[in-house]
Amino acid sequence: MNTASHALDHHDGHHPTGLLRWLTTTNHKDIGTMYLTFSLLMFFVGGAMILGVRAELFQPGLQLMKPEFFNQLIGVHALVMIFAALMPAATGFANWMIPLMIGAPDMALPRLNNWGFWLLPPAALLLTMPFFLALFGIGDGAVATGWTLYAPLSVQGGIGVDFAIFSIHILGISSIMGSINIIATILNMRAPGMTLMKMPLFCWGWLVTAVLLIITLPVLAGGVTMLLTDRHFGTHFFNAAGGGDPILFQHLFWFFGHPEVYILLLPVWGLMPHVLSTFTRKPVYGHDAQVYSFIAIGVLGLIVWAHHFLTSGLPIPALLYFMYSTMSISLPLAVLFFCWIATMWRGAMSFETPMLFALGFIVLFGIAGLTGLVLADVAADAQYHHSYFVVAHFHYALFAGGIMGVMTGVYYWLPKWTGHMYSEKLGKLHFWLTVISFNFTFMPQFFLGLAGMPRRIPDYALQFAEFNAISTVGAFALGLSQLIFAYNVWRCVKGGDKATDRVWEGTAGLEWELSSPPPHHSWETQPVIKTS
Amino acid sequence: MSPTAPRSQARLLAALGLPFVSGSALADFTWNFPKPVTPIGRDTLSMHNQFMVIITVLFVVVFAIMVYSMINHRKSVGAEPARFSGPRGALQWFWVLVPFAILLFIDFVLMGIPAFHAVIDMEDTRTKADMVLKVTGMQWKWQYEYPDSGIKYISTLATPREQIEGKEAKGEHYLLEVDNPVVLPVGKKVRILLTSTDVIHTWWVPQFGVKRDAIPGFLRETWVRIEEPGIYRGQCAELCGKDHGFMPVVVKAVPEAEYVAWVDKKKTELAAAAASGDRTWTRDELMAHGKETYDKICAACHQPTGQGLPPAFPALAGSKIVNGPLLSPDGKLIPDSHVDRVMNGKAGTAMQAFKTTLSDADIASVITYERNSFGNTKGDMIQPAQIKALR
Fold first, then answer.
1. In the CATH scheme, what is the homologous superfamily, with its name and number, of domain A30-512?
2. pTM assigned to the model
3. Is the model's pLDDT at B5 over the cut of 60?
4. DSSP code of B24?
5. What is the pLDDT of residue A17?
6. Residue ranges of B 2-21 with Cβ closer than 8 A to chain A
7. Which of B69, B121, B125, B157 is best to mutate for the A interface (most A CBs within 10 A)?
8. Per-residue model confidence (pLDDT) at position B18
9. Are B184 and B226 in contact (CB under 8 A)?
10. Separation of alpha carbons A423 and A489, rounded Å
């Protein structure tokens, strides 16, 4: 294997500096950094919104805000967290790591890459602008329909809905560009000898994600465009009086929305085996089985969407089909869990921060998976559906699964990116505070849902008071704990102990053969993978 | 019918080590579903308890293995890493495949079979149905209709504004109380038809195990057979706009005889109300009844002060429409006039066609009230008989 190591950025010498560097950069590492920074910023924006919601829910009664504003916060929180925090974080990882892992000098389409990123800030601005416009008396605030934008509520809504629709269009274009770039890079720029089945699992997770994005985002874009024409141009796609059907919107939305869950999780599933293998000092167990599971989950994810609206009165054959197809996702998912634990089995484990986050991820994401299995059951779902049980379930999937997965990756790769070690002490503190306050926040919500509390209500009956109070306290602790994370990252970017090229004792893969931080152009000479 | 035998078994398992999934061990309303009172509700709870036991066992077994590994396969206790990366040999393949066989069995037999029967049961809305109840969701209240006896009325939140805003102590049934509950007979199979006049709502009573969307322009159905008399409370479960959290469902289940008596009483009341629409009302009567109707039906959006919440909910005070002409000189409806708006609503907004839900007297008095309140001084009035003629 060819080890390229470049001590210095020795290039052309006419890179713009300052703001212009970031505006014009086509370098995959710069763009990756921008994606990750943007994601961290929006994570706090989305988090602040939901702390407002949790503060209102601390006690029964309306204390802090009107229901209209409450409805805006919950919907925009979800859109921000999904589209502006989690997805850009995963894309940031892809930008940074895929070229390093497959031995490429950069992404295949660097200018598209720049454009893809710079579409995000305007999209986020569009999404949140109605909040500020309302302060000046223009419109009645941001989209207040929840992130699902169900018609006819969204047909009725104010200008916030239009802003959200255009924001989704732009975010969608950005994601499709990112996906095209990732697919082109993976298929064309792998080092000689790296066959697809030898490719690292992180790249595989992202390859499936990118394909899912390209299949499903146009459907969402079509759905919201139909909504736009229903709102302003007199069409009746979702209006029964004109021959339309409100449930059609739910089909279109969830044909995107369910794969979206896997879009958020596949990059994290791809990352897990790398981390587990590093900190167990043992090869990944079942590499090929995990690849096939990714593909199986991607395919199954495309054909189970209607389990998101099982109470809408679907016919019996459809109910049975969506129930059993949803249950069958547990099989490839179990393969992943099996492989993760088998990777740990008889290893030599050590518990640095990334490993702690990976283990926390596995356990808490396990709860998401198991509750997902019971949610698939149509009759029981009639009780869980639209209740806090579902809210708890998908936060175990998307916070414990998505966000903690992203944090695993950040701690794991940060020394490689910056050339410095982060503070292990702060990292561990961050982990324990996050895990404990996360469970304080969301575990009570399972019981709230079982007791009959619907989601998306600004005020509630008295029997729900205790659990809501606990959940709010947990949420504030969870939110504040993330400041430790931001500080730790900041500190690490500024300086700290030098990181070695391999960073961790048990690392394997091309990305660890470059210097920390890697040179400006990652692999100027392609490494050759020996066939073993 | 779903099997009922596994229920006791599940409860036993639950009581052994898992107090948090057992409905009976601790307070019912806190840790698990509230006590079910319909066959579907009981099936759902027993299935839920069974599933919780299954997934808890899966969780404990899987993570016990992981924790064992974390304790024993640590670098700090001198573990040497193995080099394997996949199953080798028949025995290892056997151990790899066994968990999947177990999972297949759990998914499609242990959970899949009872779930199948429960679905079939839940969707069987028509066989031997004794009566029909039609539920119409609207922002933000429910309308109940008994097609057999012609009874039809609206049910809205009864919790006073002061309790919500924290100016008064909250009552026992805070947010789960209504002015007119649905009354249903115990022991009868009630086929429930659902629809909506504006956006999607969801009718949910946790103790019935029933939750179904009410979709504008379509009919959906479900059924209940309530086994015990009592008052059962639920809520709208689909985000339906600003007062989504304030449209409770309250069902009063009574013995057959009491139900029959209630139907007779309600019919008499409604007949009296309809008859009152034929006589001429005085201005004071219209204003008094108008205020009552306005506060109940209109104030959620247009506000008790008539100031509205613009731009979504326009002000009525000083409104061009409210202060416009009442009817054309020959007594016909003027398009987009005040009367037209109240009767026929405005498409694409929360303003619905109230002619389908309010009586002639309600509409006439609310229009009169709006034209002579909040600083509006039109001075005119409209009679219930005129509304009747416009229908």
1. Cytochrome c oxidase-like, subunit I domain (1.20.210.10)
2. 0.89
3. no
4. T
5. 79
6. 20
7. B69
8. 41
9. yes
10. 9
